[in-house]
Automatic annotation (TrEMBL):
GTP binds at residues 24-31, 78, 134-137. Trans-Golgi-associated GTPase that regulates protein sorting. Controls the targeting of ARL1 and its effector to the trans-Golgi. Required for the lipidation of chylomicrons in the intestine and required for VLDL lipidation in the liver. Its main location: Golgi. The keyword GTP-binding applies. This is ADP-ribosylation factor-related protein 1. The lineage of its organism: Eukaryota, Metazoa, Ecdysozoa, Arthropoda, Chelicerata. One of its GO terms (cellular component) is Golgi apparatus. Mg(2+) binds at residues 31, 56. The keyword Metal-binding applies. Interacts with SYS1. Keywords: Acetylation, Golgi apparatus, GTP-binding, Magnesium, Metal-binding, Nucleotide-binding.
Amino acid sequence: MFSLFYGLWKYIFKRDEFYVLILGLDNAGKTTFLEQTKIKFNRNYKGVNLNKITTTVGLNIGKIEYKGIVMNFWDLGGQHELQSLWDKYYAESHGIIFIIDSADIERIEESKAAFENMITNEHLVGIPLLIVANKQDILEALSLDRIKSIFKSSAPQIGKRDIHSISVSALNSQGITESIDWMTNCIKRNVPSRPPNNAEE
């Protein structure tokens, strides 16, 4: 009898579970973006002091429930020597959020190179891609249009997929809700090509 009720409970409360990678160079604001996402979408999460976030070495994780699905975020270290580890997570991912430091003009070409190396991986074909122009609160930051023009030559590698670019200030939480809303809708639409795992409440 217990197994019958447990099976019914699982059926009623199970949630489709998806995995989203947050990638980009070190100091692009990936961890701040993740923290603001957790603050906005997890009711009782207080977060950490955003001004004390340091460069990620390894992996930061986060989880939210939104629009009836569970989304797990993997924020991976962006130092050059750590980028070789990104592809270990590609096959399990359902979406990519690539974060660019709009204010670090000297490294914009380095960011583009990391992006192109990532997007050509066969495990990411067709996976939804959100390009985030972060740190738009800084006066010297490149505009979203300028960043799009710099990354325009990467279009052939991007291929056919859901793609969107957005101006964000992760520190001020500007653009966070819109980013997650877009990614959630795309992932749900993309389920036939990369099915979810099942999670239980």
